[in-house]
Amino acid sequence: MRNRAPLFNERIYAPYKIAALVEVLNEQGITPAQSLKDTGVDEQRIYDASALTSVRQYVAVCGNAIALSANAETPFKTGSRLHLSAYGMYGYALMSCLEMRDYFRLGVKYHSLATPTLVIEWSERDGKAIWTFPDALLFNESRQIRQFLIEQQFTQHVTQLQDVFGGPCPPLKAYFSYSAPPHVHLYSKYLGCPCVFDHDQCELHYDSAILDITPPLGHKLTATVMQQTCERLIGQAKVSSGISGEVYQRLLRRPGEFPSMQLIAEQLDMTPRNLRRLLQAENTSFTEILDDVRCSLATEYLKTTKMSTDDIALLLGFSEPTNFRRAFKRWTGKTTGEYRGD
Predict the structure, then answer these.
(1) Residue ranges of the domains in the chain?
(2) What is the per-residue pLDDT across 228-270, written as a single tens digit (0 to 9) for each?
(3) What are phi and psi of 61, to 5 degrees?
(4) Can you identify the CATH homologous superfamily of domain 241-340?
(5) Distances (CA, A) of 16 to 84, 114, 191, 287, 300
(6) What is the pTM (predicted TM-score) of this model?
């Protein structure tokens, strides 16, 4: 069995988070060389959009920050500098949303493009729009690293929602799953809301009244183009990275004869249970990957061939054409006829 590391080690992210943290530390007299020591990140390329880094490398820089800096504001200052404009297509897709509700939805959907260190979800309940962070981290790290990343992430969320909203939009309340630290005053300073500690999980609450508001930069055509680009980027990352990439490649080898999860697990010399667990660690599942493969093939067949939808359904392994049409509508928001321009 070839032991593939999950996405935390894959160098697929531009170094914008690393650059922001290095800047903050440099202002404290800590040189970039010190900040980046033993991380494998090239000091000369932290502003190079073509340079690729991993989540693990960013976390390593955070570890250096904790060891080198006694300034508790470091993660908060870093989060406050991570504006959406630094996130390329992902950031512009969010800024061009037609409603704030789309921002919450797409922020979760495309989160894998943003050097993710936390799992995020969102829900609407009791008059509130709520970001939740069900797992403190996507991997095992120290308590100090955990807290540093949460402080940075929460400040980043507040900063970026304000970017989209076009003005001040403070949360109603922030909740944390750990006890209040000595620098507790910094939380309300940077988040702009009351903060509650020793909660069952980390959450960030907003008034749900903002969800129907149109952001100042909302634009239908731009939103469509940017979201399509994000879909392609996510697809490319899945095809090329981690265990999910292995599964993608095997499903694509013989389109129309998709192997079962059991068979792919055997090919990878592991049990289905282990495969399921590894895919969950990469924030996906066998069913989601199979759906993505089918969707990619369906759109390709519809764009480049004159095959009937019944034939395409058969090629994609659907027992009934109606099931394919229903799935295609769910994947793309369009009927097959609309997609083809019939």
Answers:
(1) 7-212, 241-340
(2) 777 776 766 665 667 887 787 778 766 667 889 999 999 888 9
(3) -65, -40
(4) Homeodomain-like (1.10.10.60)
(5) 11, 9, 21, 32, 33
(6) 0.69
